[in-house]
Specification:
Layout lengths: L16 H11 L2 H8 L6 H11 L1 E4 L13 E3 L2 E3 L3 E3 L13 H11 L3 E3 L7 H5 L5 E5 L5 H14 L3 E5 L9 H6 L28 H9 L6 H10 L4 E6 L2 H9 L4 E4 L13 H12 L4 E5 L5 H9 L4 E4 L1 H32 L5 H4 L3 E4 L5
Parallel strand pairs: 4-11, 5-6, 6-7, 7-8, 8-9, 9-10, 10-11
Antiparallel strand pairs: 1-12, 2-3
Family: Belongs to the FMN-dependent alpha-hydroxy acid dehydrogenase family.
Protein name: Alpha-hydroxy-acid oxidizing protein
GO molecular function, one term: oxidoreductase activity, acting on CH-OH group of donors
Length: 372
Amino acid sequence: MACDDSGGGTAAVWLDMDDVERAAAAALPPDVWDFIAGGSGRELSLAANRAAFDAVFVRPRILRDVSGCRAESTLLGRAVRMPVAIGPVAYHRLVCPEGELATARAAKAAGVPFTLATLSSVPVEEVTAVGGSVWFQLYWLRDTGRTLDLVRRAEDAGCEAIVLTVDVPWMGRRLRDVRNGFALPDHVRAVHLGGGASTAHRGGDGASAVAVHTAETFSRSLTWSNVEQLRECTRLPIVLKGVLAPEDARRAVEHGVDAVVVSNHGGRQLDGALTAVDALPEMVEAVGGACEILLDGGVRSGTDVLKALALGASGVLLGRAPVWGLAAGGEDGVRQVLELLAAEVTDALGLAGCAGVAEARELEAVVRRGRR
């Protein structure tokens, strides 16, 4: 375990997310770092997520008053200080004793939603007690009754949305974890799935114990009928995470979904899956404003957020970067990550000639692959 939860703060000032990433890599045991940083297969989609952002260029506008430039927006009808939510990442206690509690406090301070994972290492009731905006990420379990009980538990705890992940019938082959024989340490538990020791804690050569555990637990038969069940079960907004096909986005709208997250799961599921950046324009066109479109995968800067907005996104999910901050500096590290991103978003908006997020969505974005 890396972070110090004593409140002492981080050791250095981070100027960009690369600094945060290096600090986390230095702080964590190699197998834990691989679990967080790695992708599936040859990690083609993992690398492509960043390359896709790097290929997008925005045409800025000039002679506009940006003296009052602000990054405030709304996500799922709620005010946010910037068009960003922390995305779901499992087992925060792998990197910090306070785990998801520290992340939730930092998100509250930053004025952005925190998406709590089904595979959280802290119960949902303790996380919502922090008082910020919490979304609950849902994996559909083999036991449908247990799944819907978990939805009701999240709703009763005060969560503001259900984020159903739809691209994980089982975990992709994450070769770093396989080579490491990765398993959870005893103090890190999937508290929403019983909380006791499980196959996720029994490592061995040639296998990821976490992958074995999820294969035993997650449903492989998730279909649109389950989305209908979810819609009937909860009054909360429903977000589908892991959508890349326009046809699926249109069908999501037909099923009453409030938002879709365009995502290849951070390059951790199908290796070779299209990047969210490349899929985004078609997805925006497909839904025609009938639901919100969020982008997930590869976001590392305020400029990336600007590019996503220019391509039509309502906002973005930030996955690995908050966990890097948590690993390197605990709650204060997550706060620094979010403060840095907020400053970068405002900087990018103003330099692009935008006084706010609405104007950013009117910018032209140009893709220039293979050209200088």
